[in-house]
Amino acid sequence: MPELNRRLSVAPMMDWTDRHCRYFHRLLSRETLLYTEMVTAKAVIHGDRKRLLGFHPVEHPVALQLGGSDPAELAEASRIAADFGYDEVNLNVGCPSDRVQSGSFGAVLMEQPGLVADCAAAMQGFGPEITVKCRIGVDDQEPRDVLPDFLETVSAAGVQSFAIHARKAWLQGLSPKQNRDVPPLDYALVYAMKAAFPALEICINGGISALDEVLTHLNHVDGVMIGRAAYHQPFALLSDADARIFGTGTARPEGDVIATMCNYIEAELVNGARLNQITRHMLGAFAGRPGARQWRRVLSEGAHLEGAGPALVMQAYAAVKG
Q1: Cα 125 from Cα 139, distance rounded (Å)
Q2: For the packed helices 310-321 and 292-302, what is the interaxial angle rounded to 10 degrees?
Q3: Where do the structural domains in the chain lie, given as residue ranges?
Q4: Span between the terminal Cα atoms of the chain, in Å
């Protein structure tokens, strides 16, 4: 399997980075690594695999993020992911939600680096590279003490690439939404981890909202993972990424992107999808531009209606292109 270029990636985001979202983002950037929403290992093993794991071939390079803490279950889920053709399988050691905590995975695993290492070791050998997305620490942990130990322990199990959200997670007292904003960012600590572990690939995540910021971070780490900014401003963040971050190609004309999405929508509607399931990921496409409000309004008010299809998208786009 070819080595992935993680200079820029779009973070796994629950309810957001589904296959429709990823298809749209791929039209904007050929190079940016795309991640699925987190899927639990149990769901992969026992659930509707086609619905949970299916993706369009155009999405490559694409990574599956798994949640779990049972090495045997994670191994089986990784094997299944390999059969589906994922380029990477990422273990979630960063999500702070109550549901994830009750399942003893996500950010709570920052307290058990040995178990994370056991899980990572079990997940390897099926083809896709195994990576880890983590926090700098949780609750009362001192990140400068625990993060180096975490990286050393887990990398000894064969993990060579880490995406580090540069905030602590507070498992009690903060909601998942607050955990994305309230704990202070410590970019310097993530930079220090790259200096301390030069052989590891270290990618930074958290609060990054512009390509200029991405380029600054790349002076210190190997890659940058962006989240909400890529979702809310996809053209602004992703259409110039290939040229500015990867040094390949130029931005695809936006009219071509919209036309290709319309062809995709037509095919998906035939297969049973509803228009609003797809266009909800496109609402922020033209954020900050004249006509953006009308674009959002047309799609928001019309995409759920019976018979809505590509024509509605072109109607909305007319407001943007003038």
Answers
A1: 34
A2: 160
A3: 8-246, 254-321
A4: 45
Written as tens digits, the pLDDT of the chain (322 aa) is 557 999 999 999 999 999 999 999 999 999 999 999 999 999 999 999 999 999 999 999 999 999 999 999 999 999 999 999 999 999 999 988 766 655 678 889 999 999 999 999 999 999 999 999 999 999 999 999 999 999 999 999 999 999 999 999 888 777 777 867 778 899 999 999 999 999 999 999 999 999 999 999 999 999 999 999 999 999 999 999 999 999 998 889 999 999 999 999 999 999 999 999 999 999 999 999 999 999 999 999 999 999 999 999 999 999 998 6
CA distance 94 to 6: 18
Tell me if residue 111 falls in helix, strand or coil. helix
The domain made up of 8-246 is a member of CATH 3.40.50.970: no
Tokens 């955990």, located at residue: 179
Q: Which residues contact 252 (CB under 8 A, 6 or more apart)?
A: 27, 28, 239
Q: What angle do the packed helices 254-270 and 19-28 form, to 10 degrees?
A: 160
Structure tokens at 74: 């994670």
Identify whether 253 is preceded by a cis peptide bond (ω within 30 of 0): no
Catalytic, 21? Answer no
Total-model pTM: 0.95
Active-site residue among 95, 119, 134, 203? 95
Q: Give Rg (Cα) of the chain.
A: 20
For 203, phi then psi, to 5°, come to -115, 145
